[in-house]
Design goal:
Bound molecules: zinc ion
Number of helices: 8
Structural class: alpha/beta
Low-confidence stretches: none
Shape: globular
Number of strands: 7
Strand content: 5-15%
Largest sheet: 5 strands, parallel
Strand order of the largest sheet: 3-2-1-4-5
């Protein structure tokens, strides 16, 4: 049986990816990245969210977690996620939240860790239907990265799985419901973190957040669209 390493930020997407992996792989480990993100509160949610997902699953598949310090990279990136800069559209057509090459860096570091840990599958929440159209989230980019990693590590069996790639945010909630019903949805609402402002003081039906930043708006809109599909 395969061993998977999930890129786990404690957001809605990576929480759903971890639940997905726990239903498919014998052993699942997680890796997260401190890149100096403004919403560092998401790092604090990693342990409780992991514990909740492991309890939901009710077995011992969830293994070790590793948090990697990438603050030097984050400082180079000068994104609105890593500096005190307004979140808006930049002249290059991408939002200022774009962290150049973020998923390429994360995947390369995760692959190095997977190599050492004997994992042959990387699981990431990259999604090309995301409103922002980040170029490092596209299926084409991930396929090229998979080729580069298999060649560069000499591991032809290494795979990158991106179960959310073609899903809308509403469909990501549907996937969570398909995997674990209302209990898993409630767990993700309560324990995952998405808000760019790091606000966990306000609770909405879809979870915690400021309710106004682009990440909150996207999460709230997806949640509402999903609820409308429910009886
Ligand atoms: Zn927010």
């Amino acid at each position: 049986m395969s061993k998977a390493l999930v890129l786990f930020s404690a957001g809605q997407d990576s929480a759903t990816c971890l639940a997905w992996a726990l239903t498919r792989f014998q052993t699942v480990e997680t890796i997260g990245f401190d890149y100096g993100q403004r919403h560092r509160v998401e790092l604090d949610q990693r342990a409780p969210l992991r514990a909740a997902l492991s309890a939901w699953r009710g077995d011992d598949r969830l293994g070790e977690d590793r948090l990697v310090d990438l603050r030097g990279y984050g400082a180079l990136a000068e994104s609105a996620l890593t500096t005190d800069r307004a979140i808006e559209m930049a002249a290059d057509g991408l939002p200022t939240t774009f962290v150049p090459g973020r998923n390429l860096v994360f995947l390369a570091v995760a692959a190095a860790h997977a190599y050492r840990r004997g994992a042959d599958v990387l699981v990431g929440g990259m999604c090309e239907t995301d409103y922002a159209g980040y170029p490092d989230c596209r299926a084409e980019t991930i396929a090229a990265m998979e080729s580069a990693l298999t060649l560069g590590l000499g591991r032809p069996d290494l795979r990158i799985e991106t179960p959310l790639m073609k899903l809308s945010k509403a469909e990501t909630w549907t996937l969570a419901h398909d995997l674990g019903g209302d209990a898993l949805v409630a767990l993700i609402e309560e324990a995952s973190h998405t808000c760019y402002e790091g606000d966990r003081s306000r609770r909405h039906p879809w979870g915690y957040g400021c309710g106004a930043c682009p990440a909150c708006e996207l999460r709230a809109a997806g949640w509402r669209a999903w609820r409308q599909t429910r009886p």
